[in-house]
UniProtKB/TrEMBL annotation:
InterPro entries: UbiA_prenyltransferase, UbiA_sf. It is a multi-pass membrane protein. It comes from Prevotella amnii DNF00058. Gene3D superfamilies: UbiA prenyltransferase (1.10.357.140). GO terms for cellular component: membrane. The chain crosses the membrane at residues 12-30, 36-55, 75-98, 110-126, 133-152, 158-176, 203-224, 236-252, 273-291. It comes from the Bacteria. Keywords: Cell membrane, Membrane, Transferase, Transmembrane, Transmembrane helix. CDD domains: PT_UbiA_2. This is Prenyltransferase UbiA.
Amino acid sequence: MKDIIKLIRPYQWIKNLIVLLPIFFSGQLFNLNALFAGLITFFSFSFAASSIYCLNDIIDVKDDRRHPVKCKRPLASGAVSITLGYILIFIMFALSMLTLSFLPGEHEKVYGVIIVYWLLNISYCVKLKQFAIIDVCIVAFGFVLRILAGGWATNITLSKWIVLMTFLLMLFLAFAKRRDDVIRMIKTGEPPRQNTIRYNIDFINQAITITSSITLVCYIMYTVSEETIKHFHTQYLYLTSIFVLVGILRYIQLAVVDKISGDPTKIMLKDRFMQIIVLLFGLSFLFIIYFL
């Protein structure tokens, strides 16, 4: 059972909390109906993502066995059989669809988004991840699908700035993760991914700079937009840009200086500095929209 849990990677479910962003950015954090719908969507996306993790490990099992870290994964190490891996793919996706049945009202769009996410990621695992740039764009678009699902599940209209920021921020994180792959290729002489040879440090550094800069600009534009000021009845949200900037700089420091950008989820779970910045951002945002 321990190896099965490792295979479906529940610690990675933290990524799916992004489906709650529409609730947070709309100021409905204390709306219990919206929170319930958001949590249902969170678990549905988490089960669908676990299904993809199983498929990815099945496809990459030979490469993982040669990887210094991934060789310890349940399928690569032989702790879980390939057959059981296939069974888990369909069990997890079935759980995803079953979970969505608890959403109140009619939510065909949410079903559609998760099915599109699942099919897109199957294509990614089978073929599309072999193409540089396309691979990181698909990863980033997967998070856009998450936030769209969260908006439709809770009947919250999303700001165009939030959608753009989500894509750009996740693209930034995906490039930072690829940087870790390039560093490993330089050290070992063997690319951890088939498309790693189409990346190098100079390109990745420029891509990180571009995406992080545009992300920050998008966030500032969101906070000072007439739409946002009118919605929250405050013009002080721009002050939270400080924490966004510091958070981005911290992540670049981890990627470029410390060279530990391989797993964004583990960084968020372990790096105290990032946790404090995210907490301060959240508290300052809530304080401004509820008390100023």
